[in-house]
Amino acid sequence: MTVHRRENHGQRLEHILDAIETLSSAFPSHQFILPIHPNPNVKLKVCQRLSKQSNIILTESLDYPQLVLLLSKAKLILTDSGGIQEEAPTFNVPILVLRYKTERMEGVEKGFAKLVGADTDKIIQESSLILQNAIKTSGANPYGDGKASQRIEKIIRKVFNG
What pTM does this model have? Predict the structure, then answer.
């Protein structure tokens, strides 16, 4: 889980945290991992609300390899992060986007992501459905296959080596 966007500060964050608390109670055998954004508007509320839940792990920000490892092992991703919306389809993990609109509609259109906003009931309903039924997504990541750097290197070598 990640939540950090300004649009989700205030009451929206409270609604999201309500959903997370409910889900952690409803699925006690699942671990919920939330890297806490350093913004004090987020960090303080998240720690106050979720630190007592035994199956919620609050961490500092993750580096990229740690993030990718968690994405690859996840059953569900709750996020308002654009970057995570692009990374998660590689692992066929369903994404519930904690926003009412996204600039990354390719993931929504291909069935990797669903917009749930900060609607507590919708977050709980959609998350429960995925967790109870072990739903996975399928198909090619609409944001690329992860091989752009190799292609770029090949082009550069061709340009400079004739």
Answer: 0.88
